[in-house]
Specification:
Blueprint (H helix, E strand, L loop, with lengths): L10 H8 L9 E5 L3 H7 L4 H21 L4 E8 L7 H23 L3 E6 L7 H13 L6 E9 L1 H14 L6 H7 L10 E4 L18 E4 L9 H13 L7
Parallel strand pairs: 1-2, 1-5, 2-4, 3-4, 5-6
Helix pairs in contact: 1-8, 2-3, 3-4, 4-5, 6-7
């Protein structure tokens, strides 16, 4: 029986999840956390407030995924293209990162959640890089859930970097040699990829790893993504037939 059958879920969702065998619980979920700015604008709030609320939701989603039995959660937090946004917004996001890692992720690391950073870490200011390193080190032995935070991440850049690394070592280009040099090496391929906000594209997120992922495009903006929404995705995932090309 699924552990994701809490009383906070609607009855219909609880009934579906009651029938899910633990073998149907996805090991790894990827999330494109989209819609923060639109959420704020729709409420007459500054766009930056949407990012702050999105950070709150990420913390709760990590807990909810862990409690559901999910072992890996991958979130698209800042893409390689996001550096091109207005300087004020990028600056705010960097400050939010500092706060998020010092406070939010500190709480999660004390709740048996391991944190891994994926992407071009060297593009961030030295103090942020130090925070990344300290957070990863402090949570190394946690086993409840691994939270992979993709920062300055782009899948095409990742694949190119992996190919260059393999060639530099004189290795033949194969699926295995490329996978070994990906920034995400050691991370399982996601069983599910969720994109919030109604957009229906992957936007350069885990293109290599998503070959057989089940895709879920939901209209909910990321700051409104709840435990109930996650439960609905898990229920639908359990009902899908995964053929993997067979």
């Amino acid at each position: 029986m699924s552990r994701y059958n809490g009383r906070n879920l609607p009855r219909a969702t609880r009934v579906l999840l009651f029938c899910i065998d633990m073998n149907d619980t996805p090991a790894c979920i990827g999330i494109i956390m989209d819609g923060n700015r639109r959420w704020a604008v729709a409420r007459g709030l500054p766009k930056l407030e949407g990012h702050r609320q999105g950070a709150e939701v990420l913390r709760e989603t990590a807990r909810n995924a862990r409690d559901a039995g999910v072992k890996h959660l991958i979130v698209y937090a800042f893409s390689t293209e996001n550096w091109q946004r207005e300087q004020e917004e990028v600056g705010y996001l960097m400050d939010l990162l500092r706060d998020f890692f010092k406070n939010y992720l500190k709480d999660l690391s004390q709740e048996n959640i391991r944190v891994r950073i994926v992407g071009q870490k060297d593009r961030f200011d030295p103090d942020i890089q130090k925070i990344f390193e300290e957070t990863e080190h402090a949570s190394t032995n946690n086993t409840g859930l691994t939270l992979w935070v993709c920062l300055s991440y782009g899948s095409r850049a990742e694949i190119v970097a992996a190919a260059k690394a393999a060639c530099a070592r004189g290795q033949e280009i194969t699926e295995d040699s490329l996978a070994a040099h990906l920034w995400t090496a050691g991370m399982p391929d996601p069983d599910i990829i969720i994109r919030t906000s109604g957009e229906k594209r992957l936007s350069n997120f885990l293109l290599w790893q998503a070959a057989y992922s089940e895709l879920f495009f939901i209209d909910t903006m990321w700051p409104d993504f709840t435990k109930d929404k996650l439960g609905q995705v898990l229920a639908e995932f359990a009902a899908r037939e995964r053929r993997r090309g067979k």
